[in-house]
User: Which sequence fits this backbone?
């Protein structure tokens, strides 16, 4: 980053592996961000409650409380910055569970620094765009009686889906990977009792009509 160039914001990195912290620190600093590293969740929580980063990278396995515990304490989905989980290949089930607890997406090890910067750029921009729009959509306020309630992120994915967006387009709009969109979609269908995509659209349209009646 050029001297005196404005920072693009702070990124919190939580990982007990110094090599991972160094790699991310170098890549993100080169991408124009200020990086603050933590080796465990307790140190992060003390800071995260008093200031908000542009984004957070949280390893699943850290000493003391796990990344998942930290995510729940921060109320992941309501935390005012996107949170990515860092996971090894064997942690995919845990990463999916983290998404259900409010993580925006997960980044799988091993990773390349340049790819991480691109993904975080997209996620931070998409997050800012959604905050700016912030107008409650019809789906955001819709109730599905007798069904398990959808999380805010599931409602965002459902809105994209009913607008005809593909997994790739929805992912681009929300700043998350198409694979994570698929996970959300499967969860939405299960919660709403939809057998397939057409059934899901029918449920939404029926609920909309009942709400207008």
Assistant:
């Amino acid at each position: 980053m050029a001297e005196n160039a404005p920072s693009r914001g702070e990124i919190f990195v939580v990982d007990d592996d110094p090599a991972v912290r160094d790699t991310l620190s170098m890549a993100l600093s080169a991408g124009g961000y200020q990086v603050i590293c933590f080796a465990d969740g307790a140190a992060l929580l003390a800071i995260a409650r008093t200031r908000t980063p542009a984004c957070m990278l949280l390893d699943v396995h850290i000493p003391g409380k796990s990344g998942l515990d930290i995510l729940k304490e921060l109320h992941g989905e309501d935390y005012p910055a996107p949170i990515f989980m860092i996971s090894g290949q064997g942690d995919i089930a845990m990463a999916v569970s983290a998404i259900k607890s409010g993580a925006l997406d997960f980044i799988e090890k091993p990773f390349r620094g340049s790819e991480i910067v691109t993904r975080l750029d997209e996620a931070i921009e998409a997050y800012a765009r959604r905050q700016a729009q912030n107008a409650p959509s019809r789906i955001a306020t819709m109730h599905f009686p007798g069904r398990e309630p959808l999380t805010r992120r599931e409602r965002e994915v459902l809105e994209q889906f009913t607008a005809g967006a593909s997994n790739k387009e929805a992912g681009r709009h929300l700043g998350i990977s198409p694979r994570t969109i698929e996970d959300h979609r499967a969860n939405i269908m299960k919660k709403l009792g939809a057998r397939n995509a057409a059934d899901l659209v029918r449920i939404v349209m029926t609920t909309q009509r009942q709400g207008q009646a």
